[in-house]
Amino acid sequence: MTPTTAHADQDAVILDYNGVIGLQPTTDQWLHLVRTALWPEDDLPAFQHAFWNARPAYDAGQLSDLAYWATVLGHHPGARRLRELRDADTAMWTFTDDRVVEILERAHASGTPLVLLSNAPRHLSDVLDRHPWRRLMSHAFYSARLQVCKPDPAAYQHAMNATSADPHRVLFVDDRADNCHAARRLGLRTLHYTGRPTDLAAALQPSN
Questions:
Q1: What pLDDT shows up at residue 4?
Q2: Distance of alpha carbon 173 from alpha carbon 17, whole angstroms
Q3: DSSP assignment of 71-128, as one string?
Q4: E strand or H helix at 3, and its extent?
Q5: Which of 86, 158, 163 is nearest to 124 (CA)?
């Protein structure tokens, strides 16, 4: 936890999804996606490199599902396989950390406004909006809908505007250090989340 977050009063919290609320995909889930893509299973690192290399543009809504997967694979996957790839990709990002959700439920019950700010493609955004934890968020902003990804300042501005609060009284939580650095430059308090729910609970605990 960064020193700027410890037991500080705050008017709102802006949260990342993947790596905070959402669990990282397992190796088995990655291998399922590799098999769906008809990619050699023993070449997972190369697949992940292709997957991530094209991801920023996909997350920013600049590539369609077809354009993204054609870029990853180097060829048109066909309509049926495209649906299978999109569904397998989406599914592996939808598992949540129950411990984090419980902490957010307590924060929500206490009246703390929670805002989601996630780099996510459009279909995944639609699926996440239907999950039960989504009701805890007063607003949810996804990069594909905004057409801009963190750490671009414009992405943060949408979430900051939704809080109607002084940035110095808003906590930003993300598992990526570069996203936290960008948030601090905009005046937000930050918690670089490293997978310890106790850190999040402490950061959301109001001072007495």
A1: 43
A2: 9
A3: HHHSS---HHHHHHHHHHHHHTT--B-HHHHHHHHHHHHTT--EEEEE---HHHHHHH
A4: none
A5: 86
104/111 Cα distance (integer angstroms): 11
What CA–CA distances, in Å, run from 195 to 74, 86, 90, 102?
35, 27, 21, 14
pLDDT at 137: 98
Ranges under pLDDT 70 in the chain:
1-8, 206-208
- The pTM assigned to this predicted structure is 0.92
Separation CA 4–CA 181 (nearest Å): 13
Q: Across the beta sheet with 189-192, what order do the strands follow?
A: 139-142, 114-118, 12-15, 170-174, 189-192
